[in-house]
Predict the 3D structure of the following.
Amino acid sequence: MNFLEERILRDGIVKEGNVLKVDSFLNHQMDIALMDQMGEEFCHRFAGKKVTKVLTIEASGIAIACSVARCFGVPVVFAKKSKSINIDGDMYVAEVESFTHKNKNQVIVSKKFLSADDQVLIIDDFLANGCALQGLISIVESAGATVAGLGIAIEKGFQIGGQVIRNLGYHLESLAIVEAMNAADGTVTFRPQA
Amino acid sequence: MNFLEERILRDGIVKEGNVLKVDSFLNHQMDIALMDQMGEEFCHRFAGKKVTKVLTIEASGIAIACSVARCFGVPVVFAKKSKSINIDGDMYVAEVESFTHKNKNQVIVSKKFLSADDQVLIIDDFLANGCALQGLISIVESAGATVAGLGIAIEKGFQIGGQVIRNLGYHLESLAIVEAMNAADGTVTFRPQA
């Protein structure tokens, strides 16, 4: 069991409806030492890949993305979920449906910050049905850039997202893959990793 | 002139309507070395203050907040702008109007992550009319916690926000205070700092 799986067992809370609350350390309150440990682990798992940018989506992916980017010595670009008046007209746009919020968002990245030369490592905190990741992949492809890989903190292995991304041939690394959760007794079962 | 003022002059873009675009290094693409330099500068400016939590608001304050929190060895809590089904009922809520987006948002922090014992350093990327900061201060006060200080990357000194916060007696540190901008010739004038 790795450090993130241990932390989930210690501080995660299982709720009805396959909701895993990790808001005390990952996506509302954030343990910075844990972010840095995840950053180093992703650096290790994607060692040997050329990475020129880390791409994430606001808001809870940003902290992890910063720790990963520090290791690689590259900038972070975060996709925005709604059109801002401070964003230029020249943007990549993808349509994304949120599993959590049950709504559709336009995901936006300025064309200034992704080019055909870029090798992009996509980072996010959660992967469930994978719509957010598909939107980010779509944006990287629109730019003519290359997806160097995808790094996720917690994958819900009982939902389709991870399998779809792997079937498409992308290198996806999830630090913790939840196979099952039980709200009645609070247990979490992880997929064994090598 | 400090490192952030120099960076603004080099890479910031002045647009009509007193818009300063810093999206190439601060709030869309992010230079992680710059984030860390800002984090260290805030640590220096708030040295001697007891800080138990860093509080920011999604999304563009998160990266700076993480760098500050690393220096202080404390967690980051980021306020959320819309109600999520993954947040418990027990929340602090403040009403905030966005200068950028021209709309009102509820700003939300779970009661689990702020208590009367907390000494809170509030961090954000921009200060203009100050509504976001006022919302965060309101949330800290609702928790019975103490505002240890407020750290801002870029303050628009020609708008009222900074003066209001200082008049209220809070310790506000802005790394760059823009006194004037000229979209015609692209110049930016900073308030001199000691």
About this structure: Chain A touches chain B through 39 residues (CB under 8 Å). DSSP finds five helices and eleven strands in chain A. The radius of gyration of chain A is 16 Å. The domain at 3-190 of chain A is CATH 3.40.50.2020 (Rossmann fold).
